[in-house]
Amino acid sequence: MNYLTLLALATSAAAAAAQKHATPSLWLAGDSTTALHDTSEGVQGWGVVIGQYLQGITMQNLAVSGTSARTYAREGYFYNLVQQVVKGDYVVIEFGHNDGGVDAELAEYPRADLSGESLTDSQTVTLANGTVEVVMNSLFDQVTEGMVDQVLAKGATPIISSTTPDNPYNSSTITINAELATQFVKYAADAAADAAAAKGVPYVDHFNAVMSLYAKLGPTVVNSYYPNDHTHTNIAGATKVAWTFINGLKCAAADGVLATYVKSTWEGAGARCSHP
């Protein structure tokens, strides 16, 4: 079953909006940078620690390591999430780290987007399990916007969040790595902003909020947050990344979402608000 079919099923499920709960839930849809990790891995997702900055809302972290927007939909994770969402809930949608790839690998690397600018181009691929899938240009945007539609249909509030950056420091002698601008994570961050604008829903510029903080902290501190690779943070880094998400809620594009639930004692990280 492909991602388009599952999003269609999610639409049907969303049409039957469940009764509003006394305490709303904040659902997180994302990849390993958000997800729960075993302590033996030495890394942790920001979604695990964000609850310390919130009150009066129940955390539901359904992020899944290794997923892209495409596979999170295709493998039924979003279908499972949206079936549990009720009126008054909030759903954060943040993908991008696993969505890049090259066209020749769309079957072998079945998480990737199709490159190119045309909105009509597509490529039909057969996955290893025999599933035939039509992968379209701007797939990342389309799947993200499709998820937004399902959340809205449940009477809940979608929040599109740009993906967190990889560690922007190459070494102790280089500042912010300009190569980030050419990576898919940067494209995904920009695409998330476009999707939020297209749908008129709250947007958190998580990418630039983290980049702003990292520029202030410098390479020694930031490198200490990445014990295994350039993508996954340890618990200290995850706490900072969660901190920047909360701070990003202060920006105008977030439209005041979740303000009621943010603890008054938290200290902001100086988010870069790209949409004043």
UniProtKB/TrEMBL annotation:
Residues 29-212 form the SGNH hydrolase-type esterase domain. One of its GO terms (molecular function) is hydrolase activity. Residues 1-18 form the signal peptide. The keyword Signal applies. The keyword Hydrolase applies. InterPro entries: RhgT-like, SGNH_hydro, SGNH_hydro_sf. Transmembrane segments: none annotated. Keywords: Hydrolase, Signal. Belongs to the 'GDSL' lipolytic enzyme family. This is Carbohydrate esterase family 12 protein. It comes from Athelia psychrophila. The lineage of its organism: Eukaryota, Fungi, Dikarya, Basidiomycota, Agaricomycotina.
